[in-house]
Amino acid sequence: MRKVISYTLVFVLVFSFGTLGLTYAGSSAQNKLDDVNDQLSSVKSQLHEGKKLENSLNKEIQNLEGKINASQAEIDSLNGNIAATQNKITEALAQLDQLEKNMDVQNNNLNGRLRTMYKNGSAGFIDVLLGSTSVTDLMTNLDRVQRIYDSDKQLMEQLQEEHNLIDAQKKNLLNLQSQLVASKEEAAQKKEDLTENQSAVADKKAQVASNNDALEDMEQSFLAEANRLKAEILASQSTGTTYKGGTMQWPAPGVTKITSPFGYRIHPILKVKKLHTGVDIGAPSGTTIVAANAGTVIKAGWNNSYGNMIMIDHGGGIVTLYAHNSSLLVKAGDVVSRGQAISKSGSTGQSTGPHLHFEVRVNGNYVDPQSGWI
Ligand SMILES: [Zn+2]
Questions:
Q1: Ligand 1 mean position to 14 CA, how many Å?
Q2: How far is the CA of 275 from the centre of ligand 1 (A)?
Q3: Strand partners for 311
Q4: I need a surface site. Which of 38, 110, 111, 283 has the fewest CB within 10 A?
């Protein structure tokens, strides 16, 4: 949509430049200036929106950057945990290995002793018995054999118990490790999604930024063209004429209410702070509007902002403008006298209700009509 609008503007721009070779009479230069100013204000408002969009996309990119960094930190932290867990697993495996060796040794000891005892059989037992000097000695000898065997067996059981414990720890560690790896994969996927998202937003931002650049170029061209036309209008106005009118005639006889004075205000339709370039006089629809002074009509026609409007050149660089009329009673080129009816008031163009918007321009600059003009 944005693209379509800017292409339309490019077309308008090219079209308007395409006709620049023509020389204008005063009134057609004024029409041209009004058109250029309309286009300029359209470009400005598009540029305003474009810059807002660009800023919000920039913020989104930064926001995604933060999230990507957070994902990377999470991945780093998980990598640390995975490495630490891997160390613990390696350690547990080494311990298990060592324990298994010890158990083999102990098992051999035990088997060896059992084998010896078995091989000696009852003879061994009788030897012990016969070798004993007394019943007490015999009991002592038997007890010694038994204790050695018990001690071997107990040691073996301890080793087995320790092995079971470490094996359980190892299983827990492996379990933890697979959870950590799964979490890491999830974080990596999240980071990838965020990165893709960020790159899409960055593409969009680049598009908007280049569109804004084009709008800025257009703004400059329109400004230059507007200045050129203003100079042209001034040149055509100021040839040998001087303003002789003195204080002007009130342009809406019978209506005294000023609903909005000249100066900076929040625009009632655009909702942005803008110079109100004239005074609004609360004339009901159909009120007769008169020329504030004698002069030549340089524009009588339609403008998107001013609606049905009239501009009168009074000489000496003084121009008055009457906007939002319901109907026009004069045409460009007409010579009008002070107080002559020129239009009926209304609410055409950018207007919130019936009124006369009255402007005084001196050498192309807006001045406050209430500063001694009316
Ligand atoms: Zn106004």
A1: 31
A2: 10
A3: 299, 321
A4: 111
CA of 31 to the centre of ligand 1 (A): 19
pLDDT tens figures, 260-276? 999 988 887 777 788 89
Q: Choose the weakest-confidence range: 109-123, 275-289, 356-370.
A: 109-123
Instruction: Tell whether 270 and 150 lie within a shared domain.
Output: no
**CB distance 24 to 234 below 8 Å:** no
Same domain, 226 and 324: no
Closest CA to 290 of 250, 348, 349: 250
Q: Which of 237, 268, 289 is the last residue of a domain?
A: 237
State the CATH number of the domain containing residue 41: 1.10.287
Give the distance (Å) from ligand 1 centre to CA of residue 306: 9
Distance (angstroms) between ligand 1 centre and the Cα of 278 equals 6
Residue 43 covered by a domain: yes
Of 237, 269, 303, the residue at which a domain comes to its end is 237
Q: How far is the CA of 323 from the centre of ligand 1 (A)?
A: 8
Is 251 a member of any domain?
no
Digit-coded pLDDT (tens) for 82-109: 999 999 999 999 999 998 898 888 888 7
What are all long-range contacts of 173-180, with beta carbons under 8 Å and residues at least 24 apart? 173/85, 173/88, 173/89, 173/92, 174/89, 176/85, 177/82, 177/85, 177/86, 177/89, 180/78, 180/81, 180/82, 180/85
Predicted confidence (pLDDT) per residue in 166-207, tens digit = 899 999 999 999 999 999 999 999 999 999 999 999 999 999
Distance 330 CA to ligand 1 centre (A): 21
Q: Which residues have CB under 8 Å from 53's CB, separation 6+?
A: 208
Give the domain range for residue 187.
1-237
Q: 344: CA distance to ligand 1 center in Å? A: 16
Calpha distance 365→125 (Å, rounded): 132
Look at residue 243 and tell me if it is in a domain: no
For residues 99 and 155, the answer to whether their CB atoms sit within 8 Å is: no
